[in-house]
Design a protein that fits this description.
The protein is mostly beta strands. Helices cover 0% and strands 38% of the residues. It has strands spanning 3-7, 10-16, 22-28, 36-43, 58-65, 68-74, 81-84. The strands form 2 sheets. The chain has a 4-stranded antiparallel sheet with strand order 1-2-3-4, with no helix packed on it. The chain has a 3-stranded antiparallel sheet with strand order 5-6-7, with no helix packed on it. A hairpin with a 2-residue loop joins strand 1 (3-7) and strand 2 (10-16). The protein is globular and about 55 Å long. The model has no long low-confidence stretch (mean pLDDT 91).
């Protein structure tokens, strides 16, 4: 486990697996003591690649609506990443993941500026 956060009625856990890939979980059911754990995204997110130097990550949560709860996260080395933890688009069965459930294009969740300003 390299990072945890809570927002509204959800917990967020991010792990680094033995193969070096990362997994983002959404946990709910705290009010009923029947926890539900959902994998939101997994794959080569390049978080905590140097686990000795960056053993933990920073997570900021933002509640926008019931179906749009975003997390922004980074290890301080890789670009800030953004995920809607209520969205299933990076879950198994999606065309955005491979046969093992790993995100095909991990850079898709990088938060990078896409605007270029013309010179003055």
């Amino acid at each position: 486990m390299i990072g945890t956060a809570t927002i509204d009625q959800y917990g967020v856990v991010i792990t680094k697996m033995s193969n070096g890939y990362n997994r983002v979980y959404r946990i709910s059911g705290f009010d009923t003591n029947m926890l539900t754990i959902q994998v939101v995204c997994q794959g080569d997110l390049k978080l905590s690649e140097n686990i000795e130097k960056h053993p933990n990550i920073s997570i900021v949560c933002n509640y926008e609506s019931e179906k749009n709860i975003k997390i922004y996260f980074t290890d301080g080395e890789s670009p800030v990443k953004i995920l809607n933890i209520m969205d299933q688009k990076y879950s198994e069965g999606s065309d955005l993941v491979d046969d093992e459930g790993n995100i095909i294009n991990p850079e898709a969740i990088d938060m990078t500026p896409s605007a270029e300003l013309p010179p003055l």
